[in-house]
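Exercise 7. Predict the joint structure of the components listed below.
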Amino acid sequence: MKLLTKAYRPISWPMKGSGGDTGSWRTHRPVVDTQICNKCQICWVYCPEAVIDRQEITIDYRYCKGCGVCAVECPTGAISMEMEE
Amino acid sequence: MATSIKKLPDIEQVLSGNGACGGCPATMGLRIVGKALGSNAIMLLTPSCSVASMGMTPRLGYNWPCINITFASAGSSASGITHALEVMQEKGRLQGELPTVFAWVGDGGTYDIGFQALSGAAERNDNIIFFCYNNEAYSNTGVQRSGATPRGSFTTTTPTGKRQPKKNMALLMLEHNIPYVATAAVAYPGDLYDKVVKAKNIPGMKYIEIQAPCYLGWQFDMPETVQMSRMAVRSGAWLLWEAENGKISFNNPSSLIISGKKDAAPVDEYLMKQGRFNRLLKGPDAESRIAEIQGDIDREIAFIRERAKITI
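Solution:
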């Protein structure tokens, strides 16, 4: 690919963590109980941060801001919010 | 029937670790929009929360080419870009499918400041999708009143509650005679996804308004973002409809309310949950002011019910 001249080069590139490690904003941590979870993916669709893995229902704690939307929306109550240490 | 959650594509256009608040409805909606539009799109942003959410240079929180433009020019800038792309394709400098040009603008940039440029773009019927994520105030600058703020709502510039009703922007856009207008809410992602996919495949100007309850502006608890959106739709304060070439059709659950099969939930419960109506509910004339708000909602429902009967 032809190198872009400096004038046309974008100043930012799409990358994870553009706001820093946003996991440090969290006061409560969502914890998934895999025994109860029925993998309905409702937490995945409502997560504003896209930190929940769709198949495994695991959470990327590096970027999760701990908003708690997943815990409220979970129909089986498999996600609980635990106080951060 | 709206697309089920399990059938939504895997593609993520909003990247983790962006600068938005936790529980932000704008990124929640934008994620679903990203799934529908795919990566071949150009995004225009006016000053809004979504610009702050992009994060810090040299990183970018959205996986699209993003252009930050002035507040009043979302419509005109999008028109310019889409025309330039068409000319580039004619001259053979751009191969393949044309990227979708879309503007992602808050309610201030749509209802008040950006209205002139948007109206112009709609009248010219330029090939763009204009998204308005409506959190009913200027939330980015600390919650000031906007044209979308409903009657009775507290903002920093209306400390005793707004005295005027809100505009119905989606209906205004419908009367511009554009090919596609729709309203959506973050609590109904399947419905939103279908509407964006439909808009993507229609040439001409498309307008989609997404209701986005901001927990800071509306003063409720952070985890209840989706619930608040759902309550607004169930109480009739927000209606889900789409109009192709001026023919309105309603989506569930608003269609049940419009057709009278199901009564709308009383607005009291919806108001009670939000801190922005607290002063109104505690005041001496609370009942009459709640009746005013209920009156606004009933009027909107009655109006759009009759408007939907015009199908010429």
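Discussion. Residues 2 and 8 of chain A are 12 Å apart (CA to CA).
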